[in-house]
Design goal:
Helix content is 38%, strand content 21%. By secondary structure, it is of the alpha+beta class. It has two domains: 3-80; 90-174 and 192-311 and 350-419, 2-Layer Sandwich (Major capsid protein gp5 fold). An eight-stranded mixed sheet has the order 7-8-16-13-9-12-11-10. Strands 1, 2, 5, 6, 14 and 15 form a six-stranded mixed sheet that branches. A two-stranded antiparallel ribbon has the order 3-4. A hairpin with a 2-residue loop joins strand 11 and strand 12 (345-349). The chain is flat and about 75 Å long.
């Protein structure tokens, strides 16, 4: 590496301990990126091509920015984690304290007496006879909150909690018919709105972490924190993947699994897409025009709540785009903990979104709060199994989750194809 390259490339530092330090390093990398990318664009204008050394610098800084953004995201996640036992704020109620103690005895020693006594008092139907015990409310809340930070789809979508296996939701595809009439003219009956019934079944998501009995016997170990820490990441990864590209078989149906048609031929039940005009690539002239078309393919009511969703590789391409005035269309976060923006709209990074390829649907833009529905079956269940994998104790943890598109006009896609 030459001295010039060392001056341009962002310095590799130790992992910062605060969000402020991580954000400052990220902004330094972005300024270096702009300088080198401007040089690359200038070389293209003068020589119709860019120097290989300059291209290499841009790629390396892009990768460094991605790494620093990951560190920043991890620090944001760490800060967002609430303390166990304080999810409801203030002191726990006597009933919650009793439930927590009984659950702790079950997890550590397999003692079911306390939980059975509580269920007898409450005359609960969802009990051990159904295959496990409900975790205390505090642990349930902790898992749900940490997952919502990790998974961009859960954070962006509407989340509904149900007590049944399937949520059926009516949706008005057309409104009431109206008409202007004269003062004394007849008022004929108008057409009624057309309704479509959407069905969202809940599917079972599970994890089965293991622990030694010695760990469980150690009073210094926070069992609830351990369960939340073991389960939340794997649940988040599975949910995030299913909400985006799940096929609906034993899992939620992701929005990329629905039929995609050219936006000019859009009909209810499918998602409209805007083509880039080139197979597996951006078009050579005015590549950012595709993003503008995607934004304005949404109706104004959804557009004002719009968010771009794409993976890091696609975002690296878009960082190089400029508007007609020479301004970068991608902007870094305004402050630590805030999302980057593209054309003024938030950018959500989801690694489950596909890379650019021929015919790929690599970018989504939409009002996900209106467009996608996540359905949670109330309660996270845990079953203690000390027999199947001795000397380990297994904790079979399950939750029921469903999901699917609820408004097909609220999400648009960008397809890397000619048409």
């Amino acid at each position: 590496m030459t001295d010039e390259m060392m001056k341009v490339a962002p310095e590799v530092k130790a992992v910062p301990e605060t969000m402020t330090a991580a954000f400052d390093e990220f902004m330094e990398a972005f300024e270096a990126f702009k300088d080198v990318n401007d040089r690359r664009l200038g070389e293209i204008e003068q020589k119709l091509t860019s120097d290989v050394v300059t291209r290499d610098k841009v790629d390396r800084i892009n990768r460094a920015m991605d790494d620093q953004k990951k560190v920043l995201d991890q620090l944001v996640l760490k800060k967002a984690r609430p303390q166990l036992g304080s999810a409801r704020g203030g002191e726990m109620s006597p009933e919650a304290v009793e439930h927590k103690a009984a659950f702790d005895a079950y997890v550590r020693r397999g003692d079911e007496a306390g939980l059975r006594e509580l269920e007898a008092k409450a005359m609960s139907a969802g009990s051990g006879a159904d295959g496990g015990y409900l975790v205390p409310d505090e642990t349930d809340t902790e898992i749900g909150r940490r997952v919502s930070v990790v998974s961009p789809m859960r954070a962006l979508s509407t989340v509904c909690t149900v007590s049944t296996a399937v949520l059926k939701k009516p949706f008005a595809t057309t409104g009431l018919a109206t008409g202007w009439v004269a003062e004394t003219a007849a008022r004929p009956q108008t057409n009624a709105p057309q309704l479509a019934e959407l069905s969202f079944p809940t599917m079972e998501l599970y994890a089965m972490p293991a622990a030694t009995q010695a760990l469980l016997d150690d009073a210094a170990v926070d069992i609830e924190a351990w369960i939340a820490g073991e389960v939340d990441i794997v649940f988040a990864e599975q949910e995030g993947d299913a909400f985006i590209r799940g096929d609906g078989i034993n899992k939620p149906k992701g929005f990329l699994d629905y039929a995609a048609v050219a936006d000019s031929a859009w009909t209810w039940g499918s998602l409209g897409y805007i083509a880039t005009g080139a197979a597996g690539a951006w078009k050579s002239a005015g590549p950012s025009d595709t993003l503008v078309d995607a934004v304005y393919s949404l109706k104004a009511g959804h557009r004002q709540n719009g968010t771009f969703m794409l993976n890091r590789k696609v975002q690296a391409d878009i960082r190089k785009f400029k508007d007609a005035d020479g301004n970068y269309m991608w902007r870094p976060p305004a402050s630590a903990g805030q999302p980057a923006t593209l054309m003024g709209f938030p950018v959500a990074e989801a690694e489950e979104m596909p890379d650019v390829a021929a015919g790929s649907l690599s970018i989504a833009f939409g009002d996900f709060r209106s467009g996608y529905l996540v359905v949670d079956r109330a309660g996270v269940r845990i079953l203690r199994d000390p027999y199947s994998a001795k000397p380990y104790v297994l904790f079979y943890t399950t939750k029921r989750v469903g999901g699917g598109v609820q408004n097909f006009e609220a999400i648009k896609l960008v397809k890397f194809a000619v048409s």
